[in-house]
Amino acid sequence: MSAEQPILAAQNLTRRYGGGILSRAPAVTAVDGVSLAVRAGQTLAIVGESGSGKSTVARMLVGLERPDLGSVTIDGRDMAALGYHARRQLGRTIQYVFQDPIASLNPRHSVARILDGTLRRLAGVAPAAARRDAMEALLALVGLPGDSLERYPHEFSGGQAQRIAIARALAAQARILVLDEPVSALDVSVQAQVLLLLDRLRTQLGLTYVFISHDLAVIEAVADTVLVMQAGRVVEEGPAAALFARPKTGYTRQLLDSAPRMEPGGGWLAPPARHA
Q: CATH 3.40.50.300: which residues of the chain?
């Protein structure tokens, strides 16, 4: 893959729900012709209000849902053209981090068991001792103590649980993380800590992010490129700095006007005053 070729791309993604001869309700189009591309090491942010279709796009990117139309390519490979085993191995390339960290972790499994399964099935780490060493290294990487391995998800705060979810994604040795509202369920101070962690991991490990959020203040802090969605369609896209300085659509301007702004130290400022 050349430096200019995107590591992840989508063309004309479309997803509809309902409809058909057995349904009395008409089909609802959740995503309508969305295309995107992100190069290795970058963060592409997809932003929009609730119901805009951004999470549906995220699920299609990782294969949790199949598009009705369009394609997703990873490292230049069309996901639809891959066989069953090849699609399963995509977990070694792309991983999903969910919005609710507690709900995304099996409550009956210890942290060790959660990480062990990923290391064994996806990363191919066979010796038990090597997996244990890898688990301890992963916890250190996300800022959790080693004794966390024997604890269960309900014993952690939301921020700590999200660190475990990030560690699980890294256990697969994935190079792309699709982060679906990863800080929206966290307190503001914890949001800043997790965002700083994600920024450090991206630099340290050379990761690529697709960051889903309704919160433009968060997006401004993390994104290289921003894609704005409304009612299932892309209404604006471009470099983050240019989009925040000179939004082209009224919808984007409304989102910006209603968003607080993040200070460099991790605090928040009030939304800017709107002018008549």
A: 1-93+176-276
Q: How far apart, in whole angstroms, are the C-alpha atoms of residue 184 and residue 100?
A: 8
**pLDDT of amino acid 260:** 63
Cα 176 from chain centroid (whole Å): 9
Structure tokens at 166: 């990030």
Answer whether residue 68 shows pLDDT above 90: yes
Residues in the chain: 276
Cα–Cα dist 5/17, whole Å = 32
DSSP H helical segments within the chain, as ranges?
A: 54-62, 84-88, 111-121, 128-141, 158-171, 188-205, 216-222, 240-245, 250-258
How do residues 6-59 score in pLDDT, each as one tens digit?
A: 999 999 999 999 876 666 778 899 999 999 999 999 999 999 999 999 999 999
Contact 212/219 with Cβ under 8 angstroms? no
Q: Which two tokens stand for residue 174?
A: 């994935």
State which CATH number among 2.40.30.10, 1.10.10.60, 3.20.20.70, 3.40.50.300 fits the domain covering 1-93+176-276: 3.40.50.300
pTM over 0.70: yes
